[in-house]
Design goal:
The chain is mostly helical and 253 residues long. The chain has helices spanning 4-13, 18-24, 29-37, 44-53, 59-66, 71-77, 83-103, 107-137, 141-169, 171-175, 178-211, 218-221, 223-252. Helix 8 (107-137) runs antiparallel to helix 13 and helix 9 runs antiparallel to helix 11. The termini are far apart.
Amino acid sequence: MLDGSDLKSVRKNAGISQTDMAKKLDCDRRTIINYEQGVCEPKASQLFRWLSVCKIDLKPLAAQVRSTKESLFLLFTLTIISPYIASVFYVGTLSSCALYGAIRKQKSILQISLIAITLYTLEFNSLSYFEAFLSNLINDQLKVSVIYYMFQIAFSILGYSIFTYIIKKNHWHYAENPRLSNLVRVIPLIYIYFATIVTLHLIDFYIDEKYNYTFLSVFYTHYENLIYIGMSLIIFTLVAMVVSHEKELKRAV
């Protein structure tokens, strides 16, 4: 299989910068550096996307992977684990919960779903433009990266603040259903989780760039998956709220 130096060579031959490759793989530039230095290996989906972006014929690689008896599974799951598909699934599921809340006139489910969709959509669509703006404004790549991560942290803190305010505002409404109340209170904690992951990611990036020391490298290696965990928790919480409300309606019949 390909090692870090091979990936670097392929990228350079295609005339693609590390920053551009990071955007195409929906990750940060440091992750690209880690792949090329052999600190960690890209997932199968990212490897295939890397080569596809560089316009490399994937047939020989697919044949090599097939020899390990893993290719059918990997090729089948490429689209499933794509960050874009994950984003569409996330927003789609939240939209379904919002629709349920509107139909059932369940204000809490509708409200939480719409706010979560809005926060995610704003962050997802604004990050690339924000990074491009910073890169044109600031020449120091380290400063650009630090501000970029702080921008993500700010969105998580904003989410925490909004949902905390909603919980306090609707305290008596939620108190009518203790289970619903407990589920709602989980949402702000998930945004604290997001902020913590990105903060640790930022700390490790900074000290590695400054001192070449990666004691928190696990947050680079698994950063994408850790973010997916938070997204899954939001989906699970909203689905649990829907189930709880349906059970409540059946008991009332």
